[in-house]
Write a structure and sequence with these properties.
The radius of gyration is 20 Å and the shape is globular. By secondary structure, the chain is mainly β. The chain has no helices and 19 strands. The strands form three sheets. Strands 3, 6, 8, 9, 10, 11, 15 and 17 form an eight-stranded antiparallel beta sheet that branches. Strand 18 and strand 19 form a beta hairpin.
Length: 209
Amino acid sequence: ENSYDELGQLVRKDVGGETALDGYTDMHNMDATTDGTLYHTGVDWNWPSRAKTKGKIDSWDNGGIVFTVPNNDKHVRVGLIKASNASQGNPYFDYGIYTEYDTGTQTNKIKLVLGNSSSTGNYGTYTAGTIFKIQRVDNVIKFYKNGIPFHSVNATSDPLVGKVAFSGPGASVEGLALTGTNIDKKLQKIKYRYNIRGWLTNINNVDPG
């Protein structure tokens, strides 16, 4: 996105955006690949890994997060958190989906994490390749499995960021994306300066976003 002055001169250029590798922040025990996969780099349990999106869904804006689980036997949490709750612990989500696996019975469940670190509910099972989405639509948060809504809760007006957390070895997600009409995800701004004659004099005033 470029900005121009009244003479049509370029005065600011927004550079970059959210990509598979540079679209995340606060990453711990997690890594990302160029195809949008995030995976747990360790083998520990009890949610030692996390990552948050640099992108943000602004107040009251519609938007959400979408992801695919490539396995049906891993512990994965993905969802949205209020920007004001960014310092909460790894398993905390304001609006999160938890794909749980019970090693004893070798069965899996879809659960939700709503405003705390504990999971709730039982919303069926999932298979490898299931696509999940969590989306704010006006004042409602909707949860989807393969495009079909299965639960909804009231939403607040808070800005939201995406978050991922893993527990146990081998956990991963694919195709993670933060979606919305006005996602705040710019990486840096380059400002241009001109002299009185309209000649470009400075393009090195870089202001990280």
